[in-house]
Amino acid sequence: MDKNLNNIFVISSPSGGGKSSLIEALLLDERAEKIKLSVSFTTREIRSSEKNQKDYIFIKEDEFMKKIDDGDFIEYAKVFGNFYGTDKLLTERILKSKDILLELDWQGAFSIKKTFKNVVSVFLIPPSYKDLEKRLSIRGTESDRSMNLRLSAAKDEISRYKFYDYLILNDNFESALIDFKTIIFEKKSPSEFKTRVTSDLLRKLLD
Ligand code: 5GP
Fold first, then answer.
1. Among 38, 40, 145, which residue has the most ligand 1 atoms within 8 Å of its CB, making it the best to mutate?
2. N or C, fewer C-beta in 10 Å, the chain?
3. Taking the CA atoms of the chain, what radius of gyration do you get in angstroms?
């Protein structure tokens, strides 16, 4: 981590991995004053629980393509059939005075790591696929088709775990939040941070 630059925190997980709730809780901590959550652009349909400009900036695919052509994104990717991208100007503006937190899929995380030096990447590992399925069905935002798409992509997403600096086990919200806060606020180096993700669990998930 470069102490002179503001940080780019990247968090990824399979869909239903519990990123959003953890981020919400992290940002309530008074130490999060210097962290701003980035709002991405997407072509996905808005969910009834979401607000345009707050959860995402929802745009049509032709507008998204134009933004790609204009070089407006620092990264973008197609995820579960929709496009998602991080705006360059918005990111630069935030980084002038704050750390930024990006919620990205693995493709976005890869590309941000390649482009910037001051990146801290975190991957949230579920205790089982059943757990993802349960969280997605309780959330109730996805059609059967989208749910299947998301669940069937989970293994591929988890297989990228080695690329991340930190692994957090999301078996229990409070424990995962403590781990997340330790990484973000206590700035423990990856070698100092004791992950609760075991090689046994990874083997089971990737078998
Ligand atoms: P959802 O449709 O559930 O909101 O998001 C689907 C996936 O897209 C999640 O893995 C989320 O982290 C990822 N995502 C959200 N915004 C961006 C972005 O700007 N870029 C990339 N690469 N992925 C994103």
1. 40
2. C
3. 17
Query: Which ligand 1 atom lies nearest to the CA of residue 85?
Result: 19
Per-residue pLDDT tens over the stretch 99-109: 999 999 999 99
Cα-to-centroid distance, 44 and ligand 1 (Å): 10
* pLDDT reported for residue 139: 87
Residue whose Cα lies nearest atom 15 of ligand 1: it is 104
CATH code at position 202: 3.40.50.300
- pLDDT in the model for residue 199: 97
In a domain, 149, yes or no: yes
Is residue 128, in this structure, part of any structural domain at all? yes
CA distances from 37 to 15, 88, 156, 197 (A): 18, 14, 26, 26
Query: Residue 177 belongs to what domain range?
Result: 8-38+99-206
The answer to pTM > 0.85 is yes
Q: Is 172 contained in some domain?
A: yes
